[in-house]
C-alpha cells in the first residue's frame, strides 16, 4: 500500500501563493478565470463579503477577494481543507470567516450576499477512478456529478441578494442544462434566476454566471 504524501506544497494561483497538500484538491490554474469573472462583476453587485461554497484550499475566493477588496465567508465540509483556507487567508492578509460545515448548516437564515462562488465536486462517481491523484471527497459528485451542485445551488440562491451574481463551476454541457432546468422553475413557482452566460474552459470545466432573470 502506498502512503499518501501529505507534505505541504505551494501552488502559484494568479498573484497568490496557495498552500495545500494531497488530501485536498490541487489548485487548478484555469480556475483563476472564476476569480477574475467574479471580480469583473463585483462593481455591479450589492456590497458585502463574497460567499464561497465548497472552497477547498480557498484559492478561488481568496484571489477574488484580493482583486475586489471584499472580505470572505468560505465554507467546506473537510476540516483539512478548512485548515488550509485559514492558513492561506492569514498568509495573504485577507479577512475570511472560514466555516467547517455541510452546505446546509453553514449559514444563518438572515445572511445575504451580493456575490457567490460555488465550486462543487462535479465528477460522476463512475469516473472518479480516472483521477487517481485527486481525493475522492473533493471530486465525487454522485451518479451524474450534480449531487453537491444542486445542493450548493439551492444554498447559494437562498442567500443571494436580488441584484447579485453567482459564479458556478460545472464539468459538462449536460450539467449546464440541468442547472438551466432547475432555474426555469422549481415546484411550479415563477423563476427568479437564470443562467446569464456560460464560458467554456474545457478540458478544465465550464463557468456559469447566474443572476436575476430579466
How would you describe what is shown here?
This is Methyltransferase. GO terms for molecular function: methyltransferase activity; nucleic acid binding. Keywords: Methyltransferase, Transferase. InterPro entries: DNA_methylase_N6_adenine_CS (IPR002052), N5-glutamine_MTase (IPR050320), SAM-dependent_MTases_sf (IPR029063). The chain contains six helices and nine strands; from the N terminus they run E-E-H-E-H-E-H-E-E-H-H-E-H-E-E. With 214 residues, the chain is an alpha/beta fold. It has one domain (9-212): Rossmann fold. Strands 5-4-3-6-7-9-8 form a seven-stranded mixed beta sheet, sandwiched between helices. It is globular and about 50 Å long. It starts with 8 loop residues before the first strand and ends with a strand. The mean pLDDT is 95.
Helix proportion range: 25-40%
CATH superfamily: Vaccinia Virus protein VP39
Q: Strand order of the main beta sheet, please?
A: 5-4-3-6-7-9-8
- Number of DSSP E strands: 9
Radius of gyration: 16 Å
Arithmetic mean of pLDDT: 95
Q: Helical segment tally?
A: 6
* Unreliable stretches: none
Question: How far is the N terminus from the C terminus?
Answer: 56 Å
Reported CATH architecture? 3-Layer(aba) Sandwich
Strand content: 25-35%
Biggest sheet architecture: 7 strands, mixed
- Please state the structural category: alpha/beta
Q: Could you give the order of the helices and strands? A: EEHEHEHEEHHEHEE
Write down the CATH topology.
Rossmann fold
Q: In total, how many domains does the architecture comprise? A: 1
CATH class: Alpha Beta
**Coarse shape:** globular
Pfam family, one: Cons_hypoth95
Protein name: Methyltransferase
GO molecular function: methyltransferase activity; nucleic acid binding
Organism: Nocardioides antri
Amino acid at each position: 500500500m502506498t502512503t499518501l504524501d501529505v507534505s505541504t506544497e505551494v501552488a502559484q494561483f494568479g498573484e497568490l501563493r496557495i498552500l495545500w497538500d494531497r488530501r485536498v484538491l490541487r489548485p487548478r490554474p484555469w480556475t483563476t478565470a472564476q476569480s477574475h469573472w467574479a471580480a469583473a462583476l463585483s462593481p455591479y453587485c450589492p456590497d458585502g463579503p463574497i460567499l464561497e461554497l465548497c472552497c477547498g484550499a480557498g484559492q478561488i475566493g481568496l484571489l477574488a477577494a484580493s482583486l475586489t477588496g471584499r472580505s470572505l465567508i468560505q465554507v467546506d465540509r473537510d476540516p483539512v481543507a478548512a485548515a488550509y483556507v485559514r492558513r492561506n487567508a492569514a498568509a495573504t492578509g485577507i479577512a475570511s470567516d472560514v466555516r467547517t460545515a455541510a452546505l446546509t448548516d453553514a449559514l444563518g437564515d438572515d445572511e445575504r450576499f451580493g456575490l457567490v462562488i460555488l465550486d462543487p465536486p462535479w465528477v460522476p462517481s463512475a469516473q472518479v477512478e480516472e483521477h487517481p491523484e485527486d481525493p475522492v471527497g473533493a471530486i465525487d459528485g454522485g451518479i451524474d456529478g450534480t449531487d453537491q451542485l444542486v445542493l450548493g445551488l439551492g444554498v447559494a440562491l437562498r442567500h443571494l441578494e436580488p441584484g447579485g451574481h453567482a459564479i458556478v463551476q460545472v464539468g459538462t454541457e449536460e450539467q449546464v442544462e440541468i442547472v438551466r432546468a432547475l432555474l426555469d422553475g422549481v415546484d411550479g413557482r415563477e423563476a427568479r434566476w437564470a443562467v446569464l452566460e456560460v464560458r467554456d474552459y474545457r478540458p478544465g470545466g465550464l463557468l456559469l454566471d447566474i443572476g436575476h432573470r430579466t
